[in-house]
């Protein structure tokens, strides 16, 4: 069942306040009897986990702060984040969408308030009666009009509530976009550092390989080395050289992506020579799962959409009910300006009418069914958003745990490979091993160091993912 809206329209002169008062007296009982056709919104009940499956042993909560990136203690990252907050195009578009939604809410609320308009008309007329000469005169009619739509069934109020909920959704979406952008900036910056670390590792290994090749050529010249040893080392050197161009390509492309995120053109992008190993790792631990839903702007946005859809159902119900229209007009009408405001020239009229939809070819019922189906769709989306939020946290907790262990193990591998390479160099100089053994240990060290840089990035990305999954320090504004 839906509801229509009653309309009260007043058309008055500024001196005819008493006419407006009469209309208000008539409308007041209707306003007092205005109906709320609901349905009343209630927050969907979705069970929350009692605890996280992969939570750390220390269960003390350490929710992210709103400036969570400061915990990495990187001045360059802080500067990039500040630039992104100021110049990122996605954030700017999200802010503009908030303004759009606020404007729509103002438009939706306008029918709940009276409107005023003024006009002045002058009409030149000429009449002839019988055989008399024509009579020409000018008729003056100044007017002030006021109109008010009596929201008897709550249709306009429901439309306003829906628009306010949409405006709230746009604000939550803005926070989601902002969090996504800032985590993307952090991730991309760390990728730049990782690629530079890998390039540095490759270049160091190139230097070592060149030194070994030089020594082997000297030994060949002295007759203590073979052409095979030289050829094998030349192969190793060429392989190391081949790893550099892809890394340089990825580095340039990643820096271009970072430039877009902070609103710059690629040629204006410059990153200082920092390294992942210099970054601090801020502490962050989720509290109870029940506290997550008030810290995720995407969850808040999904619920705000539900609130809007619920209000749309009430609006659709109101369309089934009659419109009650009260109209009043008043003013002056005179053929001469000098006597225009003479009380004898006052005009005033009052009328009432009722309009009830009878046959709309199913349009009203279709709109009502659409509103209900839309609510059901958004309810399912809200449920998915909530359970996905819990899954996001579980995913990054296990990723953080496993990448931490992987980094520890990989560091052991790097230490062992470095020691083996040093032993091989010493034994090669002593002539107790062949060059193939040295080459194998050299390749193992390079692989271990390169993998270590990638594992370090994976662990930092898991940490960033946890900040993102926990809402990045955002909390649902308190009502009232």
Walk me through this protein's architecture:
This protein has helices at residues 17-32, 75-87, 89-109, 155-222, 227-261, 297-318, 363-430, 435-469; strands at residues 7-12, 115-127, 135-148, 323-332, 346-355. With 480 residues, the protein is α+β, with helices and mostly antiparallel strands. It has a five-stranded mixed beta sheet with strand order 2-3-1-4-5. Strand 2 and strand 3 (135-148) form a beta hairpin. Helix 2 (75-87) packs antiparallel against helix 4, helix 3 (89-109) packs antiparallel against helix 4 (155-222) and helix 6 runs antiparallel to helix 7. The chain is elongated and about 140 Å long. The chain starts with 6 loop residues before the first strand and ends in an 11-residue tail after the last helix.
In short:
Helix content is 58%, strand content 11%.
* Content of β-strand: 5-15%
Q: From the 3D structure, determine the CATH topology.
A: Outer membrane efflux proteins (OEP)
Order of helices and strands: EHHHEEHHHEEHH
Quaternary structure of the protein:
single chain
What sort of overall outline do the alpha carbons produce when their principal axes are compared?
Answer: elongated
Structure characteristics:
single chain, 480 residues, alpha+beta, Outer membrane efflux proteins (OEP), five-stranded mixed sheet, 8 helices, elongated, disordered N terminus
What's the SSE blueprint?
Layout (H helix, E strand, L loop, with lengths): L6 E6 L4 H16 L42 H13 L1 H21 L5 E13 L7 E14 L6 H68 L4 H35 L35 H22 L4 E10 L13 E10 L7 H68 L4 H35 L11
Parallel strand pairs: 1-4
Antiparallel strand pairs: 1-3, 2-3, 4-5
Helix pairs in contact: 2-4, 3-4, 4-5, 4-6, 4-8, 5-8, 6-7, 7-8
